[in-house]
Amino acid sequence: MSSDQGFIISFCTILLVGIASPGPGFLVTMKNAVTYPKSVAMMSVVGIATANALFTTLALGGLTFVLKEPVILSTLYILGGTYLLYLAYRLFRIKPMNDIELNTLSDKRDCTFKSGFILQLYNPKAILLISSAVSVSIPQDTNISISVIMISMAFIISFLWYGGIVMIINYQKIRDYLLIKIHLVNKLSSLIIFFMAMKIYYSAMYLI
């Protein structure tokens, strides 16, 4: 196995383990898979995957070194925590529904490419995960072809993981069961994301 293949495998392994860890992306994707048709839920997944590909591009371009500055990192944490608080509030305010068809077109603004992209964009843990995966796995003299592969793999792994969640939860029997419990799922997700935001705020204060 060549050194380049080793770099790729190392990066993909770290990325997959990090993405598989429950977080805002998982909770929101699960909610979208229950609440919306598969084709709609997948748009948010594409947004999340695109954001991760962007993070990889930035990390390869030197973002890792920028994040070593405490002021920049704490600012990123505060912005991310604030967005997660907003997301928790939105989830908490969602009203119970008895039929998936009750969702209007305006409701689908919470499940678009843009919503998935912004969700991940304001997730400081995702930025740090990918930056760490790049710094640990990839040497400084990486050529352009390896960089392109890294960016592509970040998108593919993210898409397959979150897309897999959509496919499993969108299975009719699972979806029908969770749809009955969706109000409880939203409240629980809201609470978990709230505590994630508080943890991020605490981390930001520690950096200052």
Overview of the structural elements:
The chain has 208 residues and is mostly helical. The protein has one domain (3-207). 80% of the residues lie in helices and 0% in strands. α1 (3-20) runs antiparallel to α6 and α2 (24-35) packs antiparallel against α3. 35% of the residues are buried. The model has no long low-confidence stretch (mean pLDDT 82). One of its GO terms (cellular component) is plasma membrane. Its main location: membrane. It comes from Photorhabdus khanii subsp. guanajuatensis. Pfam families: LysE (PF01810).
- What is the first-to-last residue Cα distance? 44 Å
Low-confidence stretches: none
Mean pLDDT across residues: 82
Please give the radius of gyration in angstroms: 18 Å
Shape: globular
SSE topology string: HHHHHHHHH
How would you characterize the largest beta sheet?
A: none
Q: Work out the count of structural domains.
A: 1
Strand-pairing-aware structural class: mainly alpha
Quaternary assembly: single chain
Question: Can you count the helices?
Answer: 9
User: Which bin fits the share of residues in helices?
Assistant: over 70%
Q: In percent, how much strand structure appears in the residues? A: under 5%
Number of strands: 0
